[in-house]
């Protein structure tokens, strides 16, 4: 089976080289986020900085699985194309710059004169990825193909560079140690407040209501939660009121994009269909997560983050961690009672001290300038 898959991959890459008859368009830049699912994450924030700083005569392409949902981009002079279409193949093989946050298909034979920026979609080094999750001869072959085509792999921290280099087979010299573009907004108080108000307006949440974001990550079993204790939202809100005050709290529940976004949680608003999680980070007073790297982003707000990990033993056995849970700066709970205890006994000064130490231990590169650095590279390439 491995031999057949390898031969098929080689044939497809050879066949797609027919598109080399079309020249690379020097001022064309192609963006894709989460394999065409969203207009979000690092590609979005690079695009927005690029748009604000107007590179003349550049042609912007955005790739989506359902392009009809993103027609608003047409008003910004963006060409919208459908993922996996012939148009997609043509544009990705003729763009000077390709920007993705979740790699690209190994079947795509990018050309030597093209520039591929891998932004990735999570910061720090928490749960394991790449070869540490799935290892095979074919997997290594595809990772090596993609690694060879990467021009720059954006890194959020020294530990991210170390772990991703090993488990994605990317040479360390290809890592751009600049922080994540999506986190730039967390270093800009005016922009962060603007996005906070945007989310409140979208969900009709008044200024007196405090927001807690619950954002669990993907499990291997995807939708089966029967084997561990679900979050008790009602008790959570009671504990938050007792510790942090405020008569009104609302829980925004955001499922991982690979899970069922239609799931309803009592006493909460399901925000799973809201594309940009970074805007939800800006809007939230408290974060509850489990193993998601959204914790890394939220840590730069210095606002309280609590880990609710009732299936930690099973998850660690299935997935494992680069950084052990015991070394995370966030209070960790394994059941609802433990979570409520952590909230009621939260020590802000101690928490902020641990966050600072965590950033130092991880070797953080976040500074609020990542988008600018990336766009400077792009400007040089497309002259």
Name of the CATH first level of the largest domain: Alpha Beta
Strands of the biggest beta sheet: in what spatial order? 3-2-1-4-5-6-7
Number of domains: 2
Query: CATH topology of the largest domain, which one?
Result: Rossmann fold
The total of beta strands comes to 13
- Principal-axis shape equals globular
Uncertain stretches of 5 or more adjacent residues:
257-262
Bin the helical content.
Answer: 25-40%
Taking the alpha carbons of the first and last residues, their distance comes to 45 Å
Strand content: 15-25%
Radius of gyration: 21 Å
Structural classification: alpha/beta
Task: Please provide a written account of the structure.
- This protein is an alpha/beta fold and 383 residues long.
- It has two domains: 2-183 and 368-381, CDP-glycerol glycerophosphotransferase, N-terminal domain (Rossmann fold), CATH 3.40.50; 189-362, CDP-glycerol glycerophosphotransferase, C-terminal domain (Rossmann fold), CATH 3.40.50.
- Helices cover 36% and strands 16% of the residues.
- It has helices spanning 2-16, 41-52, 86-92, 137-149, 158-167, 189-202, 233-244, 277-283, 294-299, 312-318, 336-344, 348-362, 370-381, and strands at 25-32, 59-64, 78-82, 95-100, 115-118, 152-155, 175-177, 210-215, 249-253, 268-270, 286-289, 305-308, 332-333.
- The strands form two sheets. A seven-stranded parallel sheet has the order 3-2-1-4-5-6-7, with helices on both faces.
- β5 (115-118), α4 (137-149) and β6 form a beta-alpha-beta unit.
- The termini are far apart.
